[in-house]
Structure formats: C-alpha cells, structure tokens
C-alpha cells in the first residue's frame, strides 16, 4: 500500500470511526498525530520494557495513577493485546515509536518489529484524548485539534513517587480555556480517572516549573488568547521522562501525540 493510500485509509477511519482501520493505516506507514482520529475509541500511550524492569515499572504506575493509568498490558514476549483490540499488534499499529538505550533516544521508527524481543512487556497507559471527546460534546473547544497540531506537553517540577529505578518529574498536557470552560472541564474530566482525571494545575505555569509556555518539551505550541488560562492535566508521556532519568538499557515508547487506537469505547470509562 502506498503512503497516499494509507493516508486516505486513515482519513476514512476518522470519518467512519473504525478503530481497526485506523490501526491498519498506521501499519501501512502513515505517521501523524492521532488527535481526533476514530472518535469514540480509547487511545493509549505506550511503554515497552524488558521483563527485568516490568515489575518495578508496574509498581511505579500503581503509585502514580494520575499520569500513568494502565489500561492494558501484554504477556511477556507477546506483541498482541487482545483485550484492547482485534488483530492489535503493538509492534506496528502506532504511527511512530521512540527507541531508548541507556536513557538516550536513538531512533524514531514507524515499525518496531526488528526491535522486538522475547523478554519484552508492553504497557498501554490511558490518554487524555479520551476525555477530550467529553469536553467537545459539552462545546468546550480543544485548541490543538482546532489548529491540527499535537497537544503541548511539559516536564514539571512535580515529582512522581519512585519505584525501583523509576523516579522523576510528572509530564503534563495543556489546553487553554476560558475560566468558565476551565471550571466545567474540571467537572467533566474528574469522571475519567482511568485517563488522567481532573487537571493537576490551572494557570501560573511557572509555579510548576514551566519557564516558557510557548516552548513545550513535547508536542507543539498552541495559541493562548488573553482571556484564557492554561489548564494542565497529568500526561502519559511521563514514562518517557522517567525512563530517560532511569537510564534503562533498552526501552520503547510512543512518539508523543501519536497514540495507539484501541477498540475500547470512551463512554465506558466514565465513573459517574
């Protein structure tokens, strides 16, 4: 399949909502943000680690449920996670990956089949794209979707609870909102604890260690109007900062903003 055909398939998936078709488009080579793709379906962040580090990372996620809510986990050496989707192959079905060695980013492939090993465990972590559907349904605008860019994400001075070698700063995603929309967004997203829940901070980015709101550490900058405040949610990119800090010999994550589209439905996440 050509990249042009893959792109058409990706946009067809976006229009008709089939999460499986969205994954097939990624498998065919399309690499772009999945924000707004396959509305209604849960998307996930990815962290893949050797089995020797898996237990400690699992504990890290348990201790830090806001940035790292686990929604799926593979068996050792198995790239398939049937609970998350039909024919879901973790090696091929994300738009782009990041390969880490000793805490350094060394490669950003669109397929990790050549990197897969029999000792690897894949963790899929809840993504804020899921609660964005609920915000849009309540007529709350999402700026990065409007601008067709990746959500801006920032490393903060908020420390995560440590587990084994895993420790470090929380990463947050940001959406600029008018104050009345920010209040409503807190109410709505608090119903979705499995995909980060309510914001961790509103306004004053410097107080959580963000020196320049126009220069995100991951993703793309977005416009903030004078009558808007930045609203920050815990982000599933946090494992990337933690894995880098731990200098794990080998790990694979997703490229920020380019997520795994699952067959699970967002509507099943709400707790109220």
UniProtKB/TrEMBL annotation:
Keyword Lyase: yes
Enzyme Commission number: 4.2.1.-
Organism this protein belongs to: Rhodopseudomonas pentothenatexigens
Protein name: Putative hydro-lyase BJ125_11811
Matches recorded under PANTHER family: D-GLUTAMATE CYCLASE, MITOCHONDRIAL
GO molecular function: lyase activity
Keywords: Lyase
Similarity-based family: Belongs to the D-glutamate cyclase family.
């Amino acid at each position: 399949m050509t990249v042009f055909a893959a792109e058409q398939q990706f946009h067809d998936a976006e229009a008709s909502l089939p999460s499986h078709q969205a994954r097939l488009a990624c498998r065919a080579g399309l690499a772009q943000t999945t924000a707004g793709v396959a509305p209604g379906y849960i998307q996930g962040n990815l962290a893949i680690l050797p089995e020797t580090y898996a237990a400690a990372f699992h504990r890290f996620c348990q201790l830090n449920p806001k940035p790292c809510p686990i929604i799926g986990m593979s068996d050792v050496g198995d790239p398939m996670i049937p609970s998350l989707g039909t024919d879901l192959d973790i090696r091929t079905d994300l738009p782009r990956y990041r390969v880490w060695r000793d805490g350094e980013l060394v490669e950003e492939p669109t397929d990790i089949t050549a990197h897969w090993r029999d000792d690897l465990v894949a963790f899929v972590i809840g993504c804020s794209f899921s609660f964005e559907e609920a915000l849009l349904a309540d007529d709350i605008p999402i700026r990065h979707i409007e601008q067709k860019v990746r959500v801006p994400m920032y490393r903060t001075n908020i420390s995560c609870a440590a587990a084994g070698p895993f420790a470090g700063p929380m990463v947050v995603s940001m959406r600029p909102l008018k104050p009345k929309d920010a209040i409503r967004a807190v109410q709505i997203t608090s119903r979705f604890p499995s995909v980060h829940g309510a914001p961790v901070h509103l306004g004053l980015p410097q107080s959580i260690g963000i020196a320049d709101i126009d220069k995100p550490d991951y993703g793309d900058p977005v416009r903030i109007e004078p009558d808007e405040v930045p609203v920050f949610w815990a982000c599933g990119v946090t494992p990337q900062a933690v894995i880098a800090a731990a200098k794990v010999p080998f790990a694979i994550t997703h490229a920020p903003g380019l997520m795994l589209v699952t067959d699970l439905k967002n509507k099943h996440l709400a707790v109220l």
